[in-house]
Amino acid sequence: MKHLIVIGAGTAGTTVANQMRGRLPRDWSLTVIDPEPEHLFQPDLIFVPFGMQTPERALRPRGRTFRGVRWMQRGVESVDTDKKRIALDNGDQLKYDLLVIASGAEIRPDETAGLMGDEWQRAIFDFYTLEGATKLRDALAAFEGGRVVVNIVEMPIKCPVAPLEITFLADSYFTGRGLRDQVELIYVTPLDGAFTKPIASRALGSMLTDRGIRVEAEFNAGEVDSEHKVLKSWDEREVPFDLLITIPTHMGARFVEASGLGDELAFVPTDNATLRAQGHDDIFVLGDATNLPTSKAGSVAHFQSEVLVENLQRSIAGRSLVEDFDGHANCFIESGFGKAMLIDFNYDQEPLPGVYPYPVVGPFQLLKESRRNHWGKLAFRWVYWNMLLPGRPIPVPNHMSMAGKRLLPDADNPLAA
Amino acid sequence: MPAIEYAGTSVEVNDEGFLLQSDSWTREIAEAIAAEVGIGPLTEKHWQVIEFCRQDAAEQGQPPGLRRISKLSGINMKELYQLFPKGPGKLAARVSGLPKPQGCI
Ligand SMILES: Cc1cc2nc3c(=O)[nH]c(=O)nc-3n(C[C@H](O)[C@H](O)[C@H](O)COP(=O)(O)OP(=O)(O)OC[C@H]3O[C@@H](n4cnc5c(N)ncnc54)[C@H](O)[C@@H]3O)c2cc1C
Fold first, then answer.
1. A88 in reach of chain B (CB within 8 A)
2. CATH of domain A109-250
């Protein structure tokens, strides 16, 4: 018997496991390992702080997310790539012939001096965990005015648009409570603008300023002074806050670091087209666990899973791999007041305006706010639980397509040579 | 793409000033870029960072991000900000003739 093992049953691991079942030769077994009893739909984390989703409804029992796949409820401690063995947290060892690392990324507030000091979860909150998002909800409900600072400590982070969404939603939330005049909203980012890519950055940047949200760019947070409630950058700039919504440093799983499989942030160096771990023929990686230069997003994990499922089968059959992943990502961006935007891009093509997924008819608007996009964002929840996780085909093209996208006039388009 | 003359050599750069061909980089060009952005003349510590960045990029196929530089070049984060103010990751890459570090999409 040979063994295919998937570490991590989040978005990526679950969809791959569900797709591989039924595609394996008879002499292969399939096991998924994840210690957490429940599966969290992370896109709901932006809604929880504003009471737009309850914490309970963002979770489902993990057992219900598999279609006939064996799930072992354990944590992985380390991987011995020479002996092809995995050590579990109960001391057991498992042998693998083919390994998929899908252990995602986690926030590491402990990486920033002072962040987890006296004000942690009193005046400083994350929303990338369900606990953080829930505590932030309570803090927002009790907030009566002052300076609210949203800060990205360092890139890369999961869903790089989520900090913008939380800011837009905060603007919408305080407006709804009739408090917006008493609240100063500041967006503090290490990037040189609102987003990493120029055209989207300009569009999103002006949406922030139009709403009276100040942007502090190129701010690399170095420490937090809890006593005075001040966020400080490495180059000694200071931003005082009454409430700090932090997006802490992200790192890959600790076993990745412990096994010497990661880069300086414990992300696994991965071949960007085949999704094989660099230097390891029998290990594949997908989702947030990779070091690939594309978004850490559920949509990316979905687009990758198609390539990965093909390559796992080829690897088992001893055939050459397909080099087919193009970095495709798309994200709805919730912009408050019942509207959202959508962006669609890949390794080479930055987000552009236009319509998606079909030319002319859309129905979604790219890089532009609309109510329909907001309904699209909410519909993604259904698609996630009922199509993406079970590994059913989703009717959008796997490769990014230029159809429906509008190239801007040369003057505005940094890509036009 | 615009071409710029640095130290008597014409090189192609993108609109953020990053060299398009890192092969066309020389130490003189590094000094010229440093002067242009106001951090010249380059000190021994600058060179320690630049040499690390160029070697790492050649090995890894992509320019190192800030965290990687601070972890592996022997120059810590605080010092990197003194040497390459504001955005050390970006600035070090630019002076080293490398593309803007991606790290983040
Ligand atoms: C606030 C927020 C908003 C987001 N919004 C969107 C959105 O609108 N659209 C979108 O496409 N994406 C969004 N995302 C991103 C999306 O949730 C992630 O990119 C996606 O979940 C990545 O899937 P993954 O399987 O790689 O990681 P995860 O889904 O995080 O799963 C990793 C799994 O690995 C397990 N694991 C970790 N360590 C171990 C170990 N040692 N042993 C065994 N198992 C382990 C964990 O328990 C976890 O279940 C958002 C994320 C956040 C935080």
1. no
2. 3.50.50.60
